[in-house]
């Protein structure tokens, strides 16, 4: 009987020790710590933003540890439904969302750089919803449309201008065979007619607003 009691006490002791070990191991640094994401842009254009990300991660980890140490609440996976636990878990969710916000932007920046974008382009994209390259293209498009209006839609054989030069550049970029010299000659007219045919426009070889719009796409 005595041996049985001792045996049971040993079992209970081992269970208690194991429980304590699990609780300890549960909050060992490598288990509870939120780790910074791999693949973030370490050369992000806004260094203060990058620092804010690291501080948000540290704040999150400190909060998780503090809630467990002081209140016995695992805010990551709450086990109780009392008001204190709910408040703590909600605060954790907000802190985690803050981390994810920073993280998402830094991951996106790295991805865009792999596609060839620069810090300046990424800054423009974040501020205006458009890349710097697209912004430049849009400005160029707007200028050409303005120039088209300035020449009163009367570009004809023999005309020589910067506008004609730009149109020839566009035609060449679209794969048409044309001399880029700023002179509207038969070769340019033929290139426009060829382009219009491919775009299912009326192929008259004349530059009108419909043809120009297609060239600028």
Q: How helix-rich are the residues, as a percent range?
A: 55-70%
Give the low-pLDDT segments. none
Number of strands: 0
Q: What structural class is derived from the secondary structure elements?
A: mainly alpha
- How far apart, in Å, are the first and last alpha carbons? 92 Å
Q: N-to-C SSE series? A: HHHHHHHHH
**Molecular shape:** rod-shaped
- How many domains comprise the coordinates? 2
- What is Rg? 33 Å
Q: Average pLDDT across residues?
A: 83
**Binned strand content:** under 5%
Total of DSSP H or I helical runs spanning 4+ residues? 9
Described by strand count, sense and barrel closure, the largest sheet is: none
What does this structure look like?
With 217 residues, this protein is an all-alpha fold. The protein has 2 domains: 28-128; 132-215, Muramoyl-pentapeptide Carboxypeptidase, domain 1, CATH 1.10.101.10. The protein is 68% helix and 0% strand. It is rod-shaped, with a radius of gyration of 33 Å. The N and C termini lie far apart (92 Å). The mean pLDDT is 83.
Q: Any key phrases for this structure?
A:
mainly alpha, Muramoyl-pentapeptide Carboxypeptidase, domain 1, 2 domains, 217 residues
Quick overview:
Helix content is 68%, strand content 0%.
Helix-strand layout with pairing:
Layout: H1 2-26, H2 29-32, H3 47-71, H4 83-114, H5 119-128, H6 132-150, H7 162-173, H8 186-198, H9 209-215
